[in-house]
Specification:
One of its GO terms (cellular component) is mitochondrion. It is found in: Mitochondrion; Nucleus. This is 2-oxoglutarate dehydrogenase complex component E1. This protein folds into four domains: 216 residues, no CATH class; 337 residues, Thiamin diphosphate (ThDP)-binding fold, Pyr/PP domains (Rossmann fold); 257 residues, Rossmann fold; 130 residues, Rossmann fold (3-Layer(aba) Sandwich). The chain has 32 helices and 32 strands. It is α/β, with parallel strands linked by helices. It starts with a helix and ends in a 9-residue tail after the last helix. The strands form nine sheets. Strands 5-12-13-11-10-6-9-8 form an eight-stranded mixed β-sheet, with helices on both faces. Strand 12, helix 16 and strand 13 form a beta-alpha-beta unit. The chain is globular and about 110 Å long.
């Protein structure tokens, strides 16, 4: 009874918790394939004895049982009850139930119907078949736990030395399934959920176990049974269970050997020539190169034309040389300490640089473009960037299914498990506006971090367990078995081409040297590195295997080595001719034709960003309407659209309309606009409403901006996952692909950008200096002190300004092209617009400039509906431009000599200052000027303004605390601009640790205090 219940319970899928709690025993190190004694008895099922079984054979019972499994209604009700009772754990002799009279109750046990007499032998037949099915399932679920994955033979890839109890390691373990040694030669019919039989539908138990071990317990471990799609599971089973699937032709083996030679000898060449240089070599995982080339070959065969890659530093030079095919002399010259840097950019270390190359794939004879994205030492930060660039390339070539463009991401084991951005990137993989239709992830699993043992570095069995959240199959493979590696990579590429979903290849390897070539690993991992010192190289082992098989001769092998060594030596000789490092040779995202016009460099100018009135009206009409018929919108939204229409009639725009005008006009000019962020479709503050939702039809939406004209560019507006790091990285990558697109990321609140600080610090701020890679991404960061507490007030402008590269002590030479020249020389542009028109202009200017720079915009919250924060069409007509500074144009201009104080400010505090000035009647004595573009600083305009009011003392007013906001950035620049004898006074809150108070009353008290200081004309006397 207990055995049948156990088998029935095991027939059900085990939960993750049950799997974790499965009884286990110590795992034998590198256990060979098991064999069992050979009993002579053959299985023959007895004939059933119950009345309804009389005269039926065991084969008939078996057929009936499988028919019932597929469809319980396909068998007689009495069979249905019998099998249900047996499967539910009925004790021997109790599964059979006599048919009831017509209309009787046929419910099984547990449903109100008693179970009566049965025949044990029939139940034994069902029970044994259930046991064998459970055994097969155990190998499919947990076989990877005993696979021989570690090339060193000393580690367990899953950090567990125990063997799951339900994996057969000896004949005495058969008892777990209610079987014994005598059952090994019984023939069992195989279920449809396995392919181990090949063309055979039944096998002896001994052969079933042997084939399961061959499929799941050798040098490949397959994790896939958590996938909830039966077709995908069957596809994977077929790839690994079918007998003889891992077969290679002689030519394939010779090609694999040649690739292993190049991978290995490249590292050895670098070690000979530059033994004291860091290079983060690939030793211990040389099979990575044939792995990547296999993925690319198979993907090319399936129609892929463009592969975009991201990877950490380990093995990067080898990948550049032998996968991307960068010229060896360009790599070798990087090691020359006498090499002079080119004028442009600061450059980066050689193992951070990217590459773009279009070439013929020799296996498929098809053109393929390979890009390796440049990245910093911040591990895994490049992951979302690669995904965004891939998505953009798919978008621009019309590849809606990802059949022509794909991504490959390489990872280290410790980083893959430890960095949260990996999880964020995985969670973008199936989102409609972010999916790249499947990424092949390759983990170079060193089984160690820098010096950290994996048992101290992760809580999961494998470093790859994060991939389970998106049902990505995980193929673990011993990296010292190149043929297994190549087979797994072929399967991974086919999976991606078939299902367009992510897949992970875990190359279990080792790191022959320390973290870098200068590091001593014996300090912290003495036992591992003693074994590594004795470990024969994978190339040597594979070559000896092929020589023994007669695939190549030793002479042919040595000639292959000599041929590649000669290639390296010749490239080394050429590399000495390089005198200057041209970082442009390492571009990963070239923009051909963008920087020139008719073959000449573009001029440093920017045309007017204004539009004619008819254009503004046309866009306004779309912004205030619902283009689709029979579309029911929310009543509150109807009022908003009517308000927009009224503004258009009065030739006015608010913040939302100004943005609409900018986006719409660019779309009509053929510029793709993509706006992404957590709540961008509606807008966090319910002001944008770019996506309308039908109130009566689920999922029916309308994007009016895609109805501007028949030949417009598409508008993409998409709410993102609740991620900043991943999504901003993605949008940065998207903007990298083409200069002819306006790509914007909006934070829900501006201060949330600090969750993406790595992308800002490592890619956006210094990207052009490090990698000569321009990028026009726009960050929209809601900012403003409005009593909303410390987490919803400050976009931390001081951080962006501190990273600006303009010199505060140098007043620029004033020329006609100064405004554009300043933009060209800066690393990014930082603005805080106070009017919808200026916001409109700065967005359009971002595209009309002859180059691309990141744009940081501190956007408002209260100004979105402020009655005075509106702009006239007149400020947006042809001939108008973005105003870097808006001077005071009120009554102070009539008698500038009477002005006693000139207040410079930025952002929404301007409206509070103007209101206070009006209430105090000081319009003639206090001038208020707005610096709209903070970086690069408008020295020329500020000087003109200060010269206009020679008798006025100068103050900088901000609502942020003194140690935050703009003051530390603005003060030295104001000093450089003005007469040094005129002090620069500060008006604002005192220094503080938090950006804002969480108490509304305290906020208002602080605000009134700074307004009082701003307008008490004697407040600064005695202070300097």
């Amino acid at each position: 009874m207990h055995r049948l219940r156990t088998c029935a319970a095991r027939l059900r899928p085990l939960t993750a918790c049950q799997m974790a709690q499965s009884p286990s025993q110590p795992r034998p190190a590198q256990a060979p394939l098991r064999t069992f004694p050979q009993p002579t008895r053959h299985y023959t099922a007895p004939v059933a004895a119950e009345p309804f079984l009389n005269g039926t054979s065991s084969n008939y019972v078996e057929e009936m049982y499988y028919s019932w499994l597929e469809n319980p209604k396909s068998v007689h009700k009495s069979w249905d009850i019998f099998f249900r009772n047996a499967n539910a754990g009925a004790p021997p002799g109790a599964a059979y139930q006599s048919p009831l009279p017509l209309g009787g109750d046929l419910r099984g046990p547990g449903l109100g119907q008693a179970v009566v007499g049965s025949q044990p032998s029939v139940e034994k037949l069902v029970e044994d078949h259930l046991a064998v099915q459970t055994l097969i399932r155990a190998y499919q679920i947990r076989g990877h736990h005993v696979a021989q994955l570690d090339p060193l033979g000393i580690m367990d890839a899953d950090l567990d030395s125990c063997v799951p109890t339900d994996i057969i390691t000896s004949s005495d373990k058969l008892g777990f399934y209610g079987l014994d040694e005598a059952d090994l030669d019984k023939v069992f019919r195989l279920p449809t959920t396995t392919f181990i039989g090949g063309n055979e539908s039944a096998l002896p138990l001994r052969e079933i176990i042997r084939r399961l071990e061959m499929a799941y317990c050798q040098h490949i471990g397959v994790e896939f049974m958590f996938i909830n799609d039966i077709d995908q599971c069957q596809w994977i089973r077929q790839k690994f269970e079918k007998p003889g699937v891992m077969q290679f032709t002689l030519e394939e083996k010779r090609t694999l050997l040649a690739r292993m030679v190049r991978s290995t000898r490249f590292e050895e060449f670098l070690q000979r020539k530059w033994s004291s240089e860091k290079r983060f070599g690939l030793e211990g995982c040389e099979s990575l190169i044939p792995a990547l080339k296999t993925i690319i070959d198979k993907s090319s065969e399936n129609g892929v034309e463009n592969v975009i890659m991201g990877m950490p530093h380990r093995g990067r030079l080898n990948v550049l040389a032998n996968v991307i095919r960068k010229e060896l002399e360009q790599i070798f010259c990087q090691f020359d300490s006498k090499l002079e840097a080119a004028d442009e950019g600061s450059g980066d270390v050689k193992y951070h640089l990217g590459m773009y190359h279009r070439r013929i794939n020799r296996v498929t004879d098809r053109n393929i473009t390979l890009s390796l994205v440049a990245n910093p030492s911040h591990l895994e930060a490049v992951d979302p960037v690669v995904q965004g660039k891939t998505k953009a390339e798919q978008f621009y070539c019309g590849d809606a299914d990802g059949k022509r463009v794909m991504s490959i991401l390489l990872h280290g084991d410790a980083a893959f498990a430890g960095q949260g951005i990996v999880y964020e990137t995985f969670h973008l993989s199936d989102l409609p506006s972010y999916t790249t239709h499947g990424t092949v992830h390759v983990v170079v699993n060193n089984q160690i971090g820098f010096t950290t043992d994996p048992r101290m570095a992760r809580s999961s069995p494998y470093p790859t367990d994060v991939a389970r959240v998106v049902n990505a199959p995980i193929f673990h493979v011993n990296a010292d078995d190149p043929e297994a590696v190549v087979y797994v990579c072929n399967v991974a590429a086919e999976w991606r081409a078939t299902f367009h979903k992510d897949v992970v290849v875990d190359l279990v390897c080792y790191r022959r040297n320390g973290h870098n070539e200068m590091d001593e690993p014996m300090f912290t991992q003495p036992l591992m590195y003693k074994q590594i010192r004795k470990q024969k190289g994978v190339l040597q082992k594979y070559a000896e295997k092929l020589i023994a098989e007669g695939v190549v001769t030793r002479q042919e092998y040595e000639e292959e080595i000599s041929k590649y060594d000669k290639i390296c030596e010749e490239a080394y000789a050429r590399s000495k001719d390089e005198k200057i490092l041209h970082i442009k040779h390492w571009l990963d995202s070239p923009w051909p034709g963008f920087f020139t016009l008719d073959g000449q460099p573009k001029s440093m100018s920017c045309p007017s960003t204004g539009l004619n009135e008819e254009e503004l009206e046309n866009i306004g009409r779309v912004a205030s309407s619902v283009p689709e018929e029979d579309f029911t919108i929310h009543g509150g939204l109807s009022r908003i659209l009517k308000g927009r229409a009224a503004m258009i009639q009065s030739r006015m725009v608010d913040w939302a309309l100004g943005e609409y005008m900018a986006f719409g006009s660019l779309l009509k000019e053929g510029i793709h606009v993509r706006l992404s962020g957590q709540d961008v479709e509606r807008g966090t503050f319910s002001h944008r409403h770019h996506v309308l939702h039908d109130q009566n039809v689920d999922k029916r939406t309308c994007i009016p901006m895609n109805h501007l004209s028949s030949n417009q560019a598409p508008y993409t507006v998409c709410n993102s996952s609740l991620s900043e790091y991943g999504v901003l990285g993605f949008e940065l990558g998207f903007a990298m692909a083409s200069p002819n697109a306006l790509v914007l990321w909006e934070a829900q609140f501006g201060d949330f950008h600090n969750m993406a600080q790595c992308i800002i610090d490592q890619f956006i701020c210094p990207g052009q200096a490090k990698w000569v890679r321009q990028n026009g991404i726009v960050l929209l960061l809601p900012h403003g002190m409005e009593g909303m507490g410390p987490e919803h007030s400050s976009a931390r402008p001081e951080r962006f300004l501190q990273m600006c590269n303009d010199d505060p002590d140098v007043f620029p030479k004033i020329t006609e092209d100064l405004p554009v020249r300043q933009l060209y020389d800066c690393n990014w542009i930082v603005v805080n617009c106070s009017t919808p028109a200026n916001y409109f202009h700065v967005l359009r200017r971002q595209i009309l400039l002859p180059f691309r720079k990141p744009l940081i915009i501190f956007t408002p919250k209260s100004l979105l509906r402020h009655p005075e924060a509106k702009s006239s069409f007149d400020e947006m007509l042809p001939g108008t431009h973005f105003q870097r500074m808006i001077p005071d144009d009120g009554s102070t201009c009539k008698n500038p000599g009477a002005v006693k104080r000139l207040i410079f400010c930025t952002g929404k505090v301007y409206y509070e200052l103007v209101k206070e000035r009006r209430s105090r009647g000081m319009e003639d004595t206090v001038a208020i000027s707005r610096i709209e573009q903070l970086s690069p600083f408008p020295f020329d305009l500020v000087k003109a303004e200060t010269d206009k009011f020679p008798q006025a003392e100068i103050a900088w007013c901000q609502e942020e605390h003194k140690n935050q906001g703009y003051y530390d950035y603005v003060k030295p620049r104001l000093r450089t601009t003005t007469d040094q004898a005129r002090p620069i006074w500060y008006v604002g809150r005192d220094p503080a640790a938090a950006p804002a108070t969480g108490n509304k009353k305290a906020h208002l008290v602080e605000l009134q205090r700074l307004l009082d200081t701003a307008f008490k004309l004697d407040a600064f006397k005695g202070h300097s």
